[in-house]
Design brief:
Length: 142
């Protein structure tokens, strides 16, 4: 049996249709700056602070932040105030001292964080920051 141009086109189409589900699995949601509700695991990380911002073991002050490690990668669309942020997997949480005490028991757990999504800029370790108004444990299994 000979394979003409029509047969090759059919094989290519069938082959490419098998790739489509793989490309859609790589896509991620795109958020807007402003009010948001994000789901992820609440974790604590330490970064090097002043004076050199290079190494805690070499004498820089440790700066501990809380992060939400997101369940899915997200992007954030640009607006007139903040730039576009592609494929982010972590969001820094900006919390008050009272909130740190109130939510300490949620560290290491899957939570829903509600608040205002802003660009981190120079004041934060991460490029995305959620000024959280509420954290609550999800009923989902981590």
């Amino acid at each position: 049996m000979t394979r003409g141009p029509t047969m090759w086109r059919a094989l290519i189409i069938v082959g490419l249709s098998g790739i489509a589900p793989l490309t859609s699995a790589v896509e991620y949601s795109c958020l807007q700056y402003g009010p948001n509700e994000l789901v992820g695991t609440l974790v604590r990380q330490t970064y090097a602070g002043p004076p050199d911002y290079e190494s805690v073991t070499k004498g820089d002050e440790p700066q501990v932040i809380w992060l939400l490690q997101l369940d899915e990668r997200v992007c954030v669309a640009a607006n007139s105030r903040y730039p576009r942020e592609p494929t982010q997997i972590e969001v820094e949480l900006a919390l008050t001292e009272d909130q740190y005490r109130q939510y300490r028991h949620l560290l290491g757990r899957k939570v829903v964080a509600t608040g205002e999504l802003i660009h981190g800029g120079a004041n934060y370790q991460k490029s995305l920051v959620l000024t959280a108004s509420e954290l609550r444990q999800t009923s989902l299994v981590p």
